[in-house]
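Recap quiz, item 2
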Amino acid sequence: MLDLYLNAALNGILLGGVLALLAFGMNLIFGVVKIIHMAYGQCVMLGLYFIYTLVTHLGFPILLACIATLPLMGVVGFGLQVLVINPLLRARANPLTQLLALAGLTIVIENLAQVIWGADLRGINVQLPIISIGSVFLRTSNLIAFFGALLTLWGLYLFLNRTYMGLAIRSIAQDLDSARLMGINPQAIYYLTMVAGGLLTALIAAFFSPIYAVHPHFGGSFTMMAFIIVVLGGMGNLLGGFIGAFIIGIVTSVSAAATSTEIADIVALVIFIAVILVRPQGLLGIRVAK
Amino acid sequence: MSPSRRDYLRTPLILILLFAAIGLFPVFFPSPYLIHIGTLIFIWSFITTAWSYMGRFGLVSLGHGAFLGLGAYTSGLLFNYYGLSPWIGMFLGGGVAILFAMLIGYACFRFGVIGDYFALVTLALGEVVALTIIAFRDITGGSLGFTLKSKGTSLLYFQSEHKIHFYYISVAFLILALLVWKWIDRSKMQKALRAIGEDEIAASTLGVGIIRYKMIITSISAFMTAIGAVLYAQYITYLNPHTLSGVPPSLEIAFKAILGGMFSLWGATVGTALIVSLEEYFRVAYGSTFVGFSQIIYGLALVLLIIFLPKGIYGSVQELFKKKKA
C-alpha cells in the first residue's frame, strides 16, 4: 500500500515537471500580454497532431518531427497574436471578453482537429523501457519529459534573467508604461512572447508524444490543469507556478491512486476554486501582474 | 431609454402572430423532423434565456452545465429508482440547483469574485458536477449515462410518444422564460443589478444590497436551467454527463446566448435557433463527419462577434434600427 503511494507521488513529481512547463507558458503570456490563454492546451494538442502527421504520414524520424514542430507552433503563436489578440487589444476588450473570445477559439481548434484528423485516438507508437528501482517503477518516457522540462525551464530562466530581450519582457510584465518610456516596443514584445509561448507548446507536445495518444478534446483538460496551477501559484508569478505545478502533480497523482481519476480531478478543481475565493493572489502572496 | 406607448402596443401584435405561426406550424407541416428541430430550439432557447438573466448583468457563468446536470439527474434518478413523476422531480431538481447556486454564489459574491474570475470559477464548477456524476457510476451509469424507464408513456410521468406534445410543452416553457425576463425587466431588481453590473463599488456605497440581488438572480437562473434540463431529458429519454454537464455544454449555453445577444429579450432565442438550425443543416447536407465544419464556422463567427459586436446579432440589429429611427 505504501509502495502504491510512493509510486504515485514520484510519478506526480515527474508529471509536475511537464505541468510546470505548461503553466510557465500560460503565465508568461498572462504576465506580458495580460491575456488568459484559454486555448493553450488546445495548442499543445495541435503540436501533438503535427508530430503524429510528420511521423506516420511523412515518415519523419520522431526526433526530427519534434524539431520540425517547433517552427510550426511558433507560427501558430504568431498567427494567434495577429488574428485574435491584436484585434482584442485594439478593441480595448475587457478581460471577460478576452476570455470568451479565446474560449470560442477552442471550439474552432478542436473542430478543425476533428475534421482533419478525425475523432479517433492518434499517437506515435514508441515503446520505451520501464525502469524499476526496488519497488518503484518509472517510465522512461516520463523521465525524459521531466528532465527535458526542467532543462527547458532552466534555459528560460537564463533567457529571462541574462539577456536584454528577457529584461524587456520582464519590464513589460512589471510596468507597461514605464517600459514604454524606456524605449521598449510593447507590440514587438507581445509577438516575441506569443511565439515563445508557441515554441513551448511544441516542446510540451514533444515531451507528451511518447506518453499520450491525442484526440480532438485532448487539450481541454490541460488548459484547465495549467490554469489551476497558474492560479494556485498566483497569476503571472513564474516561481509560484513552478511550485504549484509540483503540488498539483503530486496531489492529483496520489488522490488518483487512492480513489479514482475523477475524484483526483475534482480535488484539483476544488483547490482552484478555494484559491480564487480565499487567496486570489496565490500561494506566494505576490501579484506580479495586475 | 423608456420605450414609447406605441412600442408597447405594437409589440404584442407581432408576438401574437409569431406564436400563432409557431402554434399552427405542426398542423400545416406535420413533419416529425421539423417538429423535432423546433422542439430542440425551444428547449435550448428556454435554457439560454435563463442563462441571459445573469449574463446581461455581467454575471457571465461558464458553468450552467452544473445546473443542467443537477436538475436532470435529480429528476431522472428519482424517477428511475423511486418512480417519482418528473413533474415533481423537476421542482426537486430545480431546488437542488438553487441550493448549489446559493452555496457557490454566496462564496463568490461575498469574496467579490466578478468578471473573468467569476467565469472561471463557474467553469470549474460545471466540470466538478460532471466528474461527480461520472465518479458515482454505480448509481448514475457514469460516462455511459442512463435511459429513463418507460412507464407506458403517460403524460402524468412526463412521457409521450408524440413529439407534438413536447413541441407545445416546450413552447409554453419558452414563453414562460420570456415572461420572467419581462418581469425582471420591470422589477426593482433590474435597476439594482444594472447599477451593480456597471460599477459595483459605486452601487454598494449607494446602499444597494449587492450579495442579495446577485443571489436572487443566480437562483432564478439556476432553477430555470435545471427545469429546462429535465424537459430535455424527458424528451430525449436519455441522460449523459457529457451532454448535460461539464465544460462543452456550459460553453455552448453561454455562446448561444452571446451570439444572439444576451442583453435583449429575444437574443438568446435567436442565437439558439441560428446555431441549432446551422448544425442540423450541415448534418443533413454533408453527413456527420462534416458537423465539425459547422462548428468551425460557428466558432469563428463567435470569436468575430465577441470582438467586434459584443451585443450579439440580434442586439446589434436592434441597435441599428433604433439608431435609424432616432
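Chain B has a mean pLDDT of 86.
The beta strands of chain B are 146-147, 238-239.
End of item.
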